[in-house]
Structures are given as structure tokens and as C-alpha cells.
Amino acid sequence: MIKNSVKKFGQINSIEGYSYLFLLFIAMPMKYLLGFPLAVKIAGMVHGILFILFCLLLLQAYKDAKWSFSENIIFFIASLIPFGTFFYKKKNKILRISYRA
After folding, report:
1. If you average pLDDT over residues 66-94, what whole number do you get?
2. What are the two backbone dihedrals, phi and then psi, of residue 37, each rounded to the nearest 5 degrees?
3. Which residues contact 34 (CB under 8 A, 6 or more apart)?
4. How far apart are CA 19 and CA 68, in angstroms?
5. Helix pair 38-65, 69-80: axis angle to 10 deg
6. What pLDDT score was predicted for residue 31?
7. Alpha-helix runs per DSSP H in 23-83
8. In the chain, what are the domain boundaries?
9. 68 — alpha (psi -120 to 50), left (phi > 0) or beta?
């Protein structure tokens, strides 16, 4: 059960990170440089849904794996910084161990 919730969190961590990068580096330039605001509406909505799912799975993994509160806060703050999810995921041994299992 613990490995399952941590594995799900690790997967949504990556997907949410990619959606954030897509929103920032593809959809936003399409809106402001090409005059295509629909790109931000669609990408923003998808990213928003993924971010909510990220938060829910973070809480579930926090409860199941009994992570420290500071670990949980760092995951959340890293998700707000572009490339932060990937950087912290690579440094975090909890997620690396769960992927090998």
C-alpha cells in the first residue's frame, strides 16, 4: 500500500511537472507572441487539474509513508518552481527507492 501511494505520487509528480513546463514555455508564448489565448486556457485547465491531483496524492503518500512534514512542504514548494519537481525528485531517495521496487 505504501509503495503504491508513493509510486502514484511519483508518477503525478512528473506529469504535473511536464504540464507546468508546457504551460510556461509553450502555451504562454503562444498566447503572447502568436495571439492564441486558447492555448493557455486549455493547458492551464489541464495543469490545474493535475496540480489538484498532485496535492491529493501528496497528502495520501504523506499519510501512508509517514513522511516528515518538512519533506511534504518541500515537495509542495518544489512543484511551484519550474523544473523544481524534477530536481527534488532526483535528489529525494524516498522516490528513487520506490521506483526500483
Report:
1. 83
2. -70, -20
3. none
4. 27
5. 170
6. 96
7. 28-34, 38-65, 69-80
8. 2-100
9. beta
Instruction: Name the band, by pLDDT with cuts 50, 70 and 90, for residue 99.
Output: very low
The answer to whether residues 42 and 4 touch, using CB atoms and an 8 Å cutoff, is no
The closest of 65, 58, 74 to 13, measured between CA atoms, is 58
- Measured from the Cβ of residue 51, the count of other Cβ atoms closer than 10 Å reads 16
Nearest to 76 by CA among 13, 24, 5: 13
Alpha-carbon distance values, 69 to 9, 15, 39, 62, 66 (Å):
16, 23, 36, 8, 9
57-74 pLDDT, tens digit per residue, is 999 988 888 888 888 898
CA distances (Å), 57 to each of 9, 20, 36, 61, in order? 5, 17, 33, 6
Cell 487539474 maps to which residue? 49
